[in-house]
Amino acid sequence: MAPTPFVFVEEKKDYAIVTINRGPVNAMNLQVWVELQAALDRIEGNSKMRGVIFCSGLEKDIFTAGNDLTELYAPMTSLEGYTNFWTTQNVFVGNLYSSRLVVISAIRGACPAGGCAISLASDYRIMTAGLGHIGLNEPQIGLLVPALWMVLYAKVIGERQAELLGFNGAVISPEEAKRVGLVDELVPKEKLMQTAEATMAKWLKIPSLGRSLTKKNVRQELSDRFTDRAALKAESEMGWAFLSSPETVKAMKATLNRLQGSKL
């Protein structure tokens, strides 16, 4: 029996809406990342599709809660399992970053870690005003921010700002995110998808070829680093040494215990 899907694609005339819906908080396990890549492949494979909007299907105001920590907690996985997870998520982020599509993230509520990575790989980020938070928060729970995610962070908000936020695993308000350039626009919750679709229509007025080639020239080098599977395998081995260390296991166990029954 096939697993219950967590990622859903709705095709419009010339763009698609990708909805993530894995309750209770859209924790991103391997299946979510695999389905995100399959959705991107499907949309890019349709020549009529020129854009994609990512959003949450949860009733709660959570874009995603980031990676499912059970994929990172050494006693619950293995080097092989972690390598597969690490490779899958990074290849997707890299592919999204250089996609020919116009990529918009419609961020409702909380958007830490992996959700933030999706938004960083987008072309335009719209977030709910006064609702939620965003950032690469891994250090707050005893983890390290993936190296290329920090590079992408710095490209979006500048190196020093990325250091100040990333080293401390800070998550910031929508208003602060707008100030530092982490999001491009703030709107009321009830106007989020309306604004995202209106923005998509505006971007799609630009001829695709020139726009996509300009994007490729700017982004392909970093995208290639994200999708270098040999490098990702080596990184995952180093990452596993960190994740399986007694200090990290202890910190992760405390975090998992704290989050049991938590809303986020």
CATH homologous superfamily descriptor: 2-enoyl-CoA Hydratase, Chain A, domain 1
Give the percentage of residues in beta strands.
Answer: 5-15%
Q: How many structural domains can be distinguished in the coordinates?
A: 1
What's the CATH class, please?
Alpha Beta
Our Rg estimate from Cα atoms comes to: 18 Å
* Succession of helices and strands: EEHEHEEHEEHHHEHHHH
The low-confidence runs, each spanning 5 or more residues with pLDDT under 50, are none
> Number of DSSP strands?
8
Q: How far apart, in Å, are the first and last alpha carbons?
A: 30 Å
Number of helices: 10
User: Whole-number average pLDDT?
Assistant: 96
> Structural class, from secondary structure content?
alpha/beta
The biggest sheet amounts to: 6 strands, mixed
- Which architecture would the CATH scheme give at its second level? Alpha-Beta Complex
Strand order of the largest sheet: 1-2-3-4-6-8
Per CATH, what is the topology?
A: 2-enoyl-CoA Hydratase, Chain A, domain 1
Helix content: 40-55%
Pfam families: ECH_1
GO molecular function: catalytic activity
Family: Belongs to the enoyl-CoA hydratase/isomerase family.
Tags for this entry?
264 residues, alpha/beta, 2-enoyl-CoA Hydratase, Chain A, domain 1, 6-stranded mixed sheet, two-stranded parallel ribbon, globular, Enoyl-CoA_hyd/isom_CS, catalytic activity, ClpP/crotonase-like_dom_sf
